[in-house]
Amino acid sequence: MLKIHFTEADLAKLTIAEDADPMWELLMSSYRIRRPEGEPFFGRWRRGSRSAVPQSGRLLMSAVPPYGYCPDFLTPAGTRTIGDGISAVLETPSPVLAADVGELAAQGTHVPAWLRRIGDGEPRELRRLGSALHDYYRQCVAPDWATVRRAVARDRHRLQANLDRGGPQLLLSTLHPEVTWAPPVLRVRFPIDQELHLDGRGLRLIPAFFAHGMPTTYKDPLLPPALVYSISHPRFDSDAEPGPSLAALLGQTRAKVLVTIATTRCNTSELADLTGISPATASQHASVLRASGLISSNRSGKSQIHEVTPLGLGIIRAS
Which terminus of the chain has a smaller tally of CB atoms within 10 A, N or C? Predict the structure, then answer.
């Protein structure tokens, strides 16, 4: 069990990551390639990505056990792009590298020689790790990055809607099936017992596309507090174009609008961007779909957030 202890100041500083986090997605995807969980959601990606992992990517995986502790420095806090993330890894202070590699060894994990040399402060090996991170991301994560961002945005909108409607209490109460909010403690199902006292620093919530099962956090309690958790995935291909029967029923553009809303809970402006149509056209199609019971729209701040209804999802799956 992970217990995260809040104060009133921490509730006021509860934040939601602005976008998908490339370093956490990279790390979580390396688990999905090697672990069997989540086959309905990740099976197709897993089968394609296993053959795409470059040799340097295999080097990376030797530093990341499929289960248990992963060195904290591989997921630097608050990076928005893969370039920024890798730069932050390469700029990790030597004492932090030594401590993280030492923690990996203390967990009983075999530490490869090249990673031990990173812990000893050899910059050449750290640059080698940076190249491995870049190569793996380019081959296995970047091709699906647009899908990752859309799915994470959908969950971010869910969190923000709950925060707007009921404040931090509602947000934490509805965060994830493996999380229980019993003020002032957030209890998270976790493989070990760990206590995290926020002490006024707040907590950053990071929805992750490639995460599955239990949420996770840093081992080092002095790092910026974060909770990384798995989002809910639709049970159909989120990249699919509307099938011919759905397009014949609704028209090509309206069918694409429906499929987009089903895969990405979004407002009208975002819907227009995702479908390549004007905001006025997106609003018109959303109105027709809403009147037909295929989507619902709820106000969040100044925007209307659209999401698919069970009827709309059923029509997509049947078409």
Answer: N
Q: Identify the CA nearest to 237 among candidates 36, 44, 49.
A: 44
Which H helix or E strand runs over 288? helix 279-291
What mean pLDDT is predicted for residues 12-33? 95
Which tens digits make up the pLDDT trace of 187-209? 999 999 999 999 999 999 999 99
- 41 vs 33: CA distance, rounded Å: 12
Mean pLDDT over each residue of the chain, to the nearest integer: 90
The answer to whether the beta carbons of residues 316 and 261 sit under 8 Å apart is no
Closest CA to 69 of 194, 176, 187, 179: 194
Question: Cα(first)–Cα(last) distance of the chain, in Å?
Answer: 43
Tokens representing 149 are 């961002």
CA–CA gap between residue 109 and residue 103 (Å, rounded): 9
pLDDT tens for each residue of 95-154? 999 999 999 999 888 899 999 999 998 999 999 999 999 999 999 999 999 889 988 998
Structure tokens at 206: 């990071």
Q: What is the CA radius of gyration of the chain?
A: 21
3-class SS of residue 141: helix
Secondary structure element (H or E) that encloses residue 205, with its range:
strand 204-208
CB 69 within 8 A of CB 103: yes
Count CB-CB contacts under 10 A for residue 171.
22
What gap in Å lies between CA 78 and CA 162, rounded to an integer?
Answer: 23
Query: 150: which 2 tokens?
Result: 């859309």
Residues pairing with 306 in the sheet: 266, 297
